[in-house]
Design brief:
19 strands; single chain; six-stranded mixed β-sheet; 11 helices; five-stranded mixed β-sheet
Length: 485
């Protein structure tokens, strides 16, 4: 995408999520970049709704607390925006053309791929270097990223309110390979890598070919789906269910086998045909239903394979108006940008001091007083495992659909699936998905190949929470690794 500047000093990677705000500080060194600060802070309740920052002041103050507690003193920051309804990231195919022609074409092409008015967005694009999967020499693939302009404005106001200097805004899929693939032993030499970032509300499935994003998709299953399943099964509130998921959650193979085990149907019952939602995960799960009153059972439509859908926004943005084309190519003769997007504009004022040292280990919500039985017990653990089993089957099914769809259109299927995000270290999840998908599945560690200069937290604690910081580390490494994003 845009030609990178060479990092001259420390940079913050900032991930503002609807549930947690995460940040890391990376500094250059003779032996390579090192992590000198790290931390996270709960997102103020009600401050972010549907991935849109509503209370910029509250989020800015939370960022200040995070920086102080995480030992982060840098000012320059690379952050990201995301959202199912506000951000679109998509791979599109267009006729082959020059970059100048593409600039003009994308201003009109964007209208076909977004669910909101094109006059109220900022967008960026980048031609992909690989040949067209269709083998048509007359076409080319382009990565398109679009975000609602108001979302970017509020994001910028939040970052500036925290007394930071933004140098770039990216989409999350562009950051992930920098922290999970580039320079990681055993990963950098793989041609095609898939990453599943399991967040609170959604799971992002991204496939990279030679570190280049070639397939983004969003699955509406995440940590919240698991917590809700526990809440409904055990009749507890969602916060308590989330705590139970973290403390007692694990993949229950017996519960998964029970879901897939066919039960003999009584003589007065019949089986309904059609594709099972568990089939893509490697299971057969027919369901017995009473015989209908009509002679023929109702037909069940085969579920179709949806096209890849994506979201998140990246690098630098400009309004997507036809009279103001913008390219991700080298920064040459760029049209004037609105002042809020001028990332080089100096920021007045010094960072305000905040309360020191926020203990990450105290972030976890306290057990609800009305639930004294929240202590880890075999009965509770078994109940939690049984409650989340159907959600895990659905997740495996959707991952399989995504990987199969990509493999059907590309000669090089994904060689490995990396897991990151808050649910990545759920005990047994990687093994279950490996069996269900028939491919290697690895829990990613974005900190394992970097020097950790921060002494605030033990290596054991950082290893436990590392998958949550995959996006942050990738954002912070933007100017340190790789030539292009």
């Amino acid at each position: 995408m845009a030609k990178k500047r060479k990092a001259a000093g420390p940079v913050i990677g900032l991930d503002i999520g609807s549930r947690w705000i995460k940040a890391v500080e990376v500094r250059p060194g003779k032996a390579g970049p090192s992590v000198t600060g790290i931390g996270y802070e709960p997102t103020p309740q009600g401050a972010i709704v549907d991935d849109v920052i509503l209370d910029t002041a509250a989020v800015s103050e939370a960022i200040k607390r995070l920086l102080s507690g995480g030992g982060i003193s840098a000012k320059e920051v690379v952050s990201s925006v995301a959202g199912q309804s506000t951000v679109v990231v998509r791979i599109i195919e267009v006729p082959k053309m020059t970059r100048e022609e593409l600039r003009e074409t994308m201003n009109w092409e964007v209208e076909r791929h977004i669910p909101f008015p094109s006059s109220e967005v900022v967008m960026d694009f980048q031609p992909l270097s690989r040949p067209s999967p269709s083998g048509d020499d007359q076409t080319m693939e382009v990565l398109l990223a679009v975000c609602q302009e108001d979302v970017v404005k509020k994001h910028m106001d939040t970052v500036l309110g925290a007394k930071l200097k933004p140098v770039a805004i990216e989409v999350e899929p562009l950051a992930l390979p920098r922290s999970l693939v580039y320079g990681v032993p055993g990963m950098a030499d793989r041609r095609t890598v898939a990453i599943a970032d399991i967040g609170w509300q959604t799971t992002q499935v991204c496939i990279y070919e030679n570190l280049e994003l070639v397939f983004p998709r969003s699955i509406p299953i995440g940590g919240q789906s698991l917590a809700r399943a526990i809440s409904e099964a055990l009749t507890v509130d969602e916060d308590t269910a989330d705590q139970m998921l973290r403390e007692q959650g694990a993949v229950d193979l017996e519960a998964l086998e029970a879901l897939s085990r066919p039960e003999p149907a009584p003589e007065e019952e019949t089986q309904i045909g059609g594709a099972s939602p568990f089939a893509a995960a490697g299971f057969e799960s027919p369901f017995a239903i009473p015989e209908p009153s009509v002679e023929e059972p109702p037909a069940v439509e085969e579920p179709g394979v949806p096209p890849p859908i994506g979201f998140d926004l990246g690098d630098e943005f400009v309004p997507a108006a036809p009279q103001a084309p913008f390219s991700l190519d080298e920064q040459e003769e760029a049209p004037p940008r609105k002042s809020i997007f001028d990332l080089d504009e100096p920021i007045e004022g010094e960072q305000e001091p905040s309360e020191p040292v926020f203990d990450l280990e105290e972030v976890e919500p306290e057990p609800a007083a009305a639930e004294p039985a929240l202590q880890t017990t075999g009965d509770r653990s078994a109940a939690v495992g049984a409650a989340i089993a159907p959600v895990l089957v659905d997740l495996a099914s959707e991952l399989s659909r995504s990987l199969d769809y990509y493999a059907s259109r590309n000669p090089a299927p994904a060689e490995v699936l990396l897991l990151c995000g808050g649910v990545a270290k759920l005990p047994g999840l990687a093994g279950y998905l490996e069996q269900a998908l028939g491919m290697p599945v690895v829990v990613a560690d974005p900190l394992g190949h970097l020097k950790l200069a921060s002494k605030r937290y033990s290596p054991e604690f950082l290893a436990e929470i590392a998958p949550v910081f995959s996006i942050c580390v990738g954002l912070a490494l933007r100017d340190f690794v790789g030539g292009e994003a």
